[in-house]
Amino acid sequence: MLAHRQFKDLHALARRAARRPGDADDLVQQAILAALEAGRTDLAAPETRRWLAGVIRNRAAFDARTAARRGKRERAWADSIPGEPTRATEKRPDPALSSLSPALRVTALLALSGHTRQEIGWLLNLSDDALRQRISQLKKVLANVERPHAPDPDGALAFGRIRRALLGPARRRDAFLASHDPDGHLFVVSRSRIPALRQQTRG
Asked: What is the mean pLDDT of the chain?
């Protein structure tokens, strides 16, 4: 995971590249969201940090160019930013996550990729209270997302029993998400009582 200094360096770069100081946090959030959706979940990797820096610079330059051509913004956006992932390399997002706002989607993806609560706060420049509110909002939105019914997948695992087993943990007050790995081991992403631990795994 990234150290606090590296988080600060990312925001410092965004502040230098942004046209307005208030745009810096948005630049960082957009870059992180692009990285996670492209499968770059190891934000501490040197190549990922360089990739993030390139996306921030390119996005800032793109915004500066299009500020004088607002009438062409939507057409220019189709070409996007040099250095951002192409459609061929993007993973198909979960329909539930696709329906979220960018702010909630990046929060969910950071949690699912194993980042701690402290790291999410640093990355998104959120106070502890603001992050709690965002997580609460995320849980409410996901609770209201309608998912189409799908039959149990084929295979040796007892998916019906696994789903029923997940109901109890998923209803816990501190539960964020509940799922299982390909081998059928259950896990619950929750708000840990230990500050450094964000993910609780049950086998």
From this structure: 69
Q: How confident is the model at residue 153 (pLDDT cuts 50, 70, 90)?
A: very low
Asked whether the beta carbons of 198 and 116 are under 8 A apart, the reply is yes
User: For the whole model, what pTM was predicted?
Assistant: 0.45
Overall domain count for the chain: 2
Task: Give the span between the Cα atoms of 131 and 137, in whole angstroms.
Answer: 10
Q: What distance in Å separates the CA atoms of residue 102 and residue 38, rounded to the nearest whole number?
A: 15
- Local confidence band at 150 (pLDDT 50, 70, 90 cut-offs): very low
- Residue 62, number of CB atoms within 10 A of its CB: 18
pLDDT for res 203: 46
Residues 155 and 124 in one domain: no
Cα(125)–Cα(127) distance, rounded to whole angstroms? 7
66 contacts 80 by C-beta, under 8 angstroms: no
The number of angstroms, rounded, from the C-alpha of 158 to the middle of its chain's C-alpha atoms is 30
Distance, CA of 78 to CA of 70 (rounded, Å): 14
Query: Is residue 25 within 8 Å of 121, Cβ to Cβ?
Result: no
Domain that holds residue 157: 149-203
For residues 52 and 10, the answer to whether their CB atoms sit within 8 Å is yes
